[in-house]
Amino acid sequence: MTEEIKTASEAIKNGEVILYPTDTVWGMGCDVRNQQAVNKILSIKKRPASQPLVVMIAEIGQLYDYVQKVPDIAWDIVEYAEKPLTVIYPKGKNVAPNLLASDGSIAVQLNRDEFCQKLIQKCGRAITFTSACQHLQPKPATLPDVEIDIVNAVDHVVNLPVVDKTKNTVRLSTIIRLELNGQIAFLRK
């Protein structure tokens, strides 16, 4: 795993798009500050630019790096989530402009997958996440599930053996919108 983390982090730092396993599905990712790489992912997915990608962090403290004001309730919600959780915060910062929604909001996921955490730490910053499929198509649970056009379009494919057999099934994260006043709206349960 160490060599794959090194290679994938170098690819990300060089502005490349990677294909990698997460705790939910196989995804595409890049440096959160690289607007061209984000655009490349949106193009590969054929996803509207009005639907930004998720910012994936490895540690809860990284929220300060990417969210202008973290609502107090966020800390407990994120820390104690029992399954993958993506939270949309009112105002983002320190990312490529195309990672922010038109209202300035930002989607952030604290990832608990060992590979993802180590990759993010090695990169020294968050990375993007979106499922490795075209917009509105089935999400890939395994690398063989990823369409060949997607595999050929990215710059680097992470090559890791599947140790956890639960990773062979699609698991979607819960998505909530969290307002500064603590109001919560569930967008996907």
TrEMBL record:
One Pfam family this sequence matches: Sua5_yciO_yrdC
GO molecular function, one term: L-threonylcarbamoyladenylate synthase
UniProt cross-references to SUPFAM superfamilies, sorted A to Z: YrdC/RibB (SSF55821)
Major localization class: cytoplasm
Localization annotation: Cytoplasm
PANTHER family assigned to the protein according to its UniProt record, in alphabetical order: SUA5 (PTHR17490), THREONYLCARBAMOYL-AMP SYNTHASE (PTHR17490:SF16)
Protein name as catalogued: L-threonylcarbamoyladenylate synthase
Organism of origin: Rhodocytophaga rosea
Record lineage: Bacteria, Pseudomonadati, Bacteroidota, Cytophagia, Cytophagales
